[in-house]
């Protein structure tokens, strides 16, 4: 088995599309004791998936711990016949404000280190509670057809590969491919999974016509032309294939499901004026939104997904879901839904705190004074841990089938 890495820059460090499209084999280097190792992944194919309308009620605290333990094992470095040499590591990563940041894209600027990998795995569990494991049509799209081509799934911006791991386990007859800017650290890769390191912004023509499902979740911070990416997805999909898109808009919402206003209020000369200020978590994520936009990320993609997909001539059976989920466990009551909301609140609180810490290099690099950023982080942590102020994030999800 071989592992391919598609680099987004040429040897001279400048962007080179021709170089980026050519797989680079990572040769074994047993002499490099500090090499970053990862297991080779399975062969390419993509399949479509859908969001289930119900949360599995069997998920509980014990199963959550088991799932987290399983996800953590995906991040543990392990020996492999392939490795990243020290020189390639130095070319691929840089330190910024104490965190490792990838060098292949100037748009995406969240870290690529162990704390971030751990956050992404826990986020995957949270999102399973929020939107469900798969959309309804996924089972039909990925049904095994012995007389047809092997089913295949593509996950764009796959992160640690947690979603692909679910696909590989639930659909062992499917080939699954993940694409991300950095290689994940894996102890075990299912035989039907393969990862590729690439910058999606450079184009995906090499995947055209190969997949039954294309999934993209929370990648807008690193995408310059999201509408163009959707067009490429339509070409990647086989007839009747499934596209699944899920994005947040980097805004925090109040209990009326309206975004907190970040317009600078008058000087807080009274306690009432001070109380009218938006919460620190909203202000900090507002800084993130501005910094992502300044780097070229598409922070408005979430609110445009439905229009883009609905108006694209290749898609039909478009389904749109607009979901608000709590950022802390403030829900009260003993009903099943209130318990579910509290569970999501606990998971979302931990994810949000880690997410804001991960975004510190982004906001500092974007010009936010360090003292202001750190004060907001402290205040936001206090708000979310106390859980007294209802705050929500909004996730907009679209899935659709490709026409014949």
From TrEMBL:
Comp. bias (Low complexity): 69-79
UniProt GO MF annotations: methyltransferase activity
Record Pfam families: Methyltransf_31
Residue ranges with Basic and acidic residues bias: 24-35
Location of the region described as Disordered in the Swiss-Prot/TrEMBL record: 1-79
Domain Methyltransferase: 150-249
Biased composition range(s): Acidic residues: 53-65
Protein keywords: Methyltransferase, Transferase
The UniProt record lists the keyword Transcription regulation: no
One Gene Ontology biological process: methylation
Name of the protein in question: S-adenosyl-L-methionine-dependent methyltransferase
